[in-house]
Design brief:
mainly alpha
Amino acid sequence: MQILLACDHGGYELKEELKAFLKSLGVEPIDMGTFNEDSVDYPDFGILAAERVSRGE
């Protein structure tokens, strides 16, 4: 099973905490971004994750 994580700037800190938690369980999540707290539009990252899921990756 793969877990994709994606967020906008408002969710960055929580995404990083969730990523660390998953890693502590032995799960290696795929981080689709954002990669810092700079202001971004969440659909940009949601679309990247959704496209990957729709391709079955």
